[in-house]
Description:
78% helix
Amino acid sequence: ARARHLFQEALRQLPEYPVPQPRLTALHGLLELQIQLGDFAGAEESLKLVGRALRYTDSVRERSMALTARSELQRLTGKVDGYTENLEEIARCAASLEDFELSVWVTAKLAEHYSGLGRFSEAMRILAGFGAPQDEWPPELWAAYGMLLRRRHQPLPAEEALQRAAATFRSQGRTPELIRVLMHAGAAALRADHKELAVELLKEALF
Length: 207
């Protein structure tokens, strides 16, 4: 509550024009907090204020941050009209900025989104276009690939890809990402009739 109050106090002092960046920085911080807290109505209002401030800058970075917050809010609320288009615009921003972390994030999100819709060839095209050999993929892409394979009813390679992602997330101490991948890996192991492994993976995820 205190952090939200501080952001709101800062916003009262920061103008949209002529230099909107300090106000946008505060809005992005407030947005992140609101999404974390599940205050989706508040996040929608903050996004409207971001849109107003963006009229006074042509910063690709600021636009990409706004689009990323919008797409996460859409994903969490299920209001996915324009979700694909937002992700594709973020991908263009990432390429323009040559931002590796943003490229990883949006590549994984697009691949997961397309595979979730059953558009497997498009998901594979997105992953193949990442620009690095598969052996050098970050764990987010191995996770997206594993989910694609699982949805395509290929449990054995799905299990392998998801376990590879899990090993990296585990070593990096990235617990939320690890839990999500373990759940998918456990489901793939069950489908492959690897019941003991499935129990082990799901137990790690849940306990």
